[in-house]
């Protein structure tokens, strides 16, 4: 009886996993095939031959390297900025006692509930006034002022570090900045990795931000470029589009294999305030 | 200088980047967007205060009502379906938690949320293509006549809800970790009392994880109220505006018609709707959610 139930659960999980994986299987198969392999009904399940030249063609079909480096630049700046600033801010919210700290932190949490659609129009006008439109700045500069989500996650972690650990440093005359640099930062490699990974993934995937702030086609990111090429070419060159889509997905696949454990931990920590 | 004073100054210095960011990128835009919603505002001409005119026009705008209706459809049907899927998968994973395959399965169900939505939508556009889409061939093989998916007014919304089922990773991980926290003694006591697995699930597990269910529902509802990328890339709001959502309405008015006052009013309507929904859900469920400790 118990064995039967277990077998049923595993079979259902296998079925579910196959369904979940199928779109990715299909993306890779089409990217390796010839158009005549799958642009017919029913399509072939495997390509008739391995066409790796689809990938070299895809690099020219959309300005892949340009979009890749645009995306990489924005993503790295966002990741670096939010890690550095959120770590400092989270220290200020957890290891220094000052009046008003808790109220400000509640407001910080409140901003996570604000829909981007509400703030995007004034932000657009603001960035226009700063002279940032036509550059990548609207997409990465705000990250250098901290991200509410990252501040929350790091504050949770810093609160778990006992104050006694910092006291001896304080007696030795170390200031807060020195404590942050020499004690806190080396201890928080794992939570900082969680923050960095999530910021990387979000920024890499982001579609709404680039759609609003990037007007010049040369500045497009991969997500925006793929969407634009699909609508422009009406999906005629599916094998090339799928090759470009596969290449776009590769960084996230690398992150997944290297660090899915951190990502899963991060989700658990940030959902930890639900009670 | 007193110690307290020093700490205050140090605290403010450490949070100063965020203090500035909070004002510049959150508080100021939030308040300004309400002001914009009371003006006739176009970036290339001076704005004019019009009171609540924009809101009055919104209520008479059929397209606004249509996008509101579509968004509510995505929330009302999509959120329960996604959450049910996430909970089912988490329960399945929980029941094999001691075996080595658990991590592999969890990884597979988690992976799609790391993939850009645009990529997922493109793959689905190909798989659901009416001429050579593989899903249609498969359905025909089973003897089912496939609908025209995103090209049909009836099927476009369900198609988008369906492809969004691939993005349940976050909810699933949260469900799974909460299932792991249900004390095993309670379950074992129920087994000794002869409770069936189904009964144990509904009478013990569900009440024990009810705060997490509520949390996931609220987060998913807030997210789905802002649904944009999938309908924008897949159908551009079509066919016949059947997938046109509130955020698309705001985007189009603000950045294509440059009618930013009107778009801001729509944004504030959306925000109020999300806010009211969240408060109502919290109030209604407060008596049914079980908080431990």
Q: Overall mean pLDDT score of chain B?
A: 92
Treating each run of at least 4 consecutive H or I residues as one helix, how many helices of chain B? 14
Q: Which structural class do you get from the secondary structure elements of chain B?
A: mainly alpha
Number of strands of chain A: 0
Total count of domains of chain A: 2
Order of helices and strands of chain B: HEEHHHHHHHHHHHHH
Kindly report the CATH topology of the largest domain in chain B.
MetI-like fold
CATH architecture of the largest domain in chain B: Orthogonal Bundle
Q: How are the strands of the largest sheet of chain B arranged?
A: 1-2
- CATH names the topology of the largest domain in chain A as MetI-like fold
User: Tell me about the biggest sheet of chain B?
Assistant: 2 strands, antiparallel
Q: Describe the sheet with the most strands of chain A.
A: none
Distance between termini of chain B? 43 Å
Strand fraction of chain B equals: under 5%
Quaternary structure: heterodimer
Task: Give the second-level CATH assignment, the architecture of the largest domain in chain A.
Answer: Orthogonal Bundle
Question: How many DSSP E strands of chain B?
Answer: 2
* CATH class category label of the largest domain in chain A: Mainly Alpha
Which regions of chain A have little confidence, pLDDT < 50, spanning 5+ residues?
none
Briefly characterize the structure.
The complex is a heterodimer of chains A (275) and B (293). Chain A has 275 residues and is mostly helical. In chain A, 75% of the residues lie in helices and 0% in strands.
Descriptive account of the structure:
The complex is a heterodimer of chains A (275) and B (293). Chain A is 75% helix and 0% strand. Chain A has 275 residues and is mainly alpha-helical. Chain A has two domains: 1-51, no CATH class; 61-274, MetI-like fold (Orthogonal Bundle), CATH 1.10.3720. In chain A, helix 4 crosses helix 8 (148-159) and helix 4 (64-94) packs across helix 11. Chain A is globular and about 75 Å long. The two termini of chain A are 36 Å apart. In chain A, 42% of the residues are buried. Chain B folds into two domains: 3-37, no CATH class; 54-285, MetI-like (MetI-like fold). With 293 residues, chain B is mostly helical. In chain B, 42% of the residues are buried. In chain B, helix 3 (62-95) packs across helix 8 (169-181), helix 3 (62-95) runs antiparallel to helix 11 and helix 9 (184-192) runs antiparallel to helix 10 (197-208). Chain B contains 14 helices and two strands. In chain B, strand 1 and strand 2 (45-49) form a beta hairpin. The longest helix of chain B has 35 residues, at 3-37. At the A-B interface, helix 1, helix 4, helix 5, helix 6 and helix 11 of A face helix 1, helix 3, helix 4, helix 5 and helix 6 of B.
């Amino acid at each position: 009886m118990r064995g039967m139930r277990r077998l049923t659960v595993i079979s259902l999980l296998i079925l579910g996993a196959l369904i979940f994986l199928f779109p990715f299987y299909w993306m890779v198969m089409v990217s390796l095939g010839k158009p005549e392999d799958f642009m017919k009904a029913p399509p072939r399940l495997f390509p008739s031959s391995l066409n790796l030249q689809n990938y070299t063609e895809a690099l020219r079909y959309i300005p892949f390297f340009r979009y890749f480096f645009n995306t990489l630049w924005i993503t790295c700046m966002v990741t670096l900025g939010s890690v550095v600033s959120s770590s400092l801010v989270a220290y200020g919210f957890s290891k220094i006692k000052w009046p008003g700290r808790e109220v400000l932190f509640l407001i910080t949490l409140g901003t996570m509930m604000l829909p981007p659609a509400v703030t995007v129009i004034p932000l657009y006008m603001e960035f226009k006034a700063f002279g940032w439109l036509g550059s990548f700045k609207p997409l990465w500069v705000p990250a250098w002022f901290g991200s509410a989500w990252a501040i929350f996650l790091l504050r949770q972690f810093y609160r778990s570090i006992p104050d006694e650990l910092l006291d001896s440093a304080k007696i030795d005359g170390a200031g807060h900045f020195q404590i942050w640099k020499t004690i806190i930062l080396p201890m928080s490699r794992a939570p900082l990795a969680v923050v960095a990974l999530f910021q990387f993934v979000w920024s890499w995937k982001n579609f709404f931000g680039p759609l609003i702030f990037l007007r010049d086609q040369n500045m497009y990111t991969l997500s925006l470029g793929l969407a634009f090429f699909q609508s422009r070419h009406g999906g005629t060159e599916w094998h090339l589009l799928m090759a470009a889509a596969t290449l776009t997905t590769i960084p996230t696949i690398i992150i997944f294999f290297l660090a899915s454990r951190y990502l899963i931990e991060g989700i658990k920590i940030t959902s930890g305030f639900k009670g | 200088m007193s110690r307290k004073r020093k700490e205050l100054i140090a605290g403010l210095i450490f949070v100063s980047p965020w203090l500035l960011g909070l004002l510049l990128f959150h508080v100021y835009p939030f308040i300004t967007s309400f002001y914009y919603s009371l003006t006739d505002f176009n970036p290339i001409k001076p704005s004019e205060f019009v009171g609540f005119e924009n809101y009055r026009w919104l209520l008479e705008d059929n397209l606004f009502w249509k996008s509101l209706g579509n968004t509510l459809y995505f929330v009302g049907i999509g959120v329960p379906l996604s959450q049910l899927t996430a909970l089912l998968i988490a329960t399945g994973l929980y029941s094999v938690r001691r075996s080595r395959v658990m991590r592999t399965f969890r990884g597979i169900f988690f992976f799609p949320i790391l993939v850009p939505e645009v990529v997922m939508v493109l793959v689905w556009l190909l798989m659901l293509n009416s001429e050579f889409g593989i899903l249609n061939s498969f359905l025909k093989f089973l003897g089912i006549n496939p609908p025209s998916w995103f090209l049909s007014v009836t099927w476009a919304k369900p198609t988008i809800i369906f492809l969004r089922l691939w993005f349940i990773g976050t909810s699933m991980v949260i469900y799974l970790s909460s299932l792991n926290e249900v004390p095993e003694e309670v379950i074992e006591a129920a087994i000794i009392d002869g409770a069936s697995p189904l009964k144990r699930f509904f009478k013990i597990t569900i009440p024990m994880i009810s705060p997490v269910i509520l949390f996931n529902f609220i987060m998913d509802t807030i997210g789905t109220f802002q649904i944009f990328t999938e309908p924008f890339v897949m159908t551009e709001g079509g066919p016949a505006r059947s997938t046109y959502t509130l955020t698309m309405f705001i985007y189009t008015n603000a950045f294509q018609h440059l009618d930013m006052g009107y778009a801001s009013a729509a944004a504030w309507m959306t925000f109020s709707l999300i806010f009211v929904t969240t408060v109502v859900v919290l109030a209604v469920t407060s008596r049914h959610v079980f908080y431990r400790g």
